[in-house]
Write a structure and sequence with these properties.
Elements: H1 5-14, E1 19-21, H2 22-26, H3 34-46, E2 50-54, E3 57-60, H4 77-84, E4 88-90, H5 92-98, E5 108-113, E6 121-123, E7 126-132, E8 141-146, E9 149-154, H6 156-165, H7 173-183, H8 202-214, H9 218-230, E10 238-239, E11 252-253, E12 258-259
Parallel strand pairs: 5-7, 10-12
Antiparallel strand pairs: 1-3, 2-3, 4-5, 6-7, 8-9, 11-12
Amino acid sequence: MVTNLQDWVESEMMRGRYIFTKEDVLALHLPITRNALQNSLNRLTRRGIIMSPWKNFYVAIPTEYKLKGVVPPSFYIDRLMHFLGRDYYVSLLSAAALNSATHQSPMVFQVMVDGRPVRSGVKNGTMLEFTLCQNLPLKFTKQVKTQMGYMNVAGAELTAFDIVAEEEKVGGLGRVAELLIELSETISLGDDKLALLKYFSSPTIQRLGYLLEQIENQDLANDLYALMKRSEKRMRRVPLKQSAPFTNDMPKNRRWNIIENYKIEIDEL
């Protein structure tokens, strides 16, 4: 019979089990009150033995992370999203890094979720940023192995669409162009990606096509143009940067029907 919470946590770690919930602890039926149990959890957190990235959700800190006292979200994100009952995938800068589009670890861990909004915030030293998407294109994600199993990560093509749609969350269009240069080495826009277009607006597809031409990847731009022609999407005139002002007398890109209200400097590429 378990009588001590710390002993139980340490025995679970020895068995390779690092993640637990408050319900798991309550099921132990420790001979203490609920208040005393919560105090024990708080004490283990202060001592750096466990961390709580979400209410009632706990992670025992492996030895290799003891110094910082922070476990990377990749360690627990899949279990956390199951705990919250949400479909999800790792997205934007975090997905780009996992698709070899950057050698730098982003300071924020970005996740697409369905359902009700999930509050973003700093969780134990790491910024978790959630973006709501009611119709997740899970078919275009992949499973990436983690220390605790697997997590859903946007594939290169889905990441390309996402970073254009959410360009402000990745650092602007200049940063999007940089990422596309690296992502383009693994992007394929063949017939099997036609279904991906239905998850994104026409303006997002138009902007992606325009940016692919700007980074001089004409093959991918042509492939995307062919997919858009085969889809039910229709092009209407839209500004390149949605948040920037524009007028009808600004230069226009005829192929993608883009008003060029933002200039991507060459040194940004």
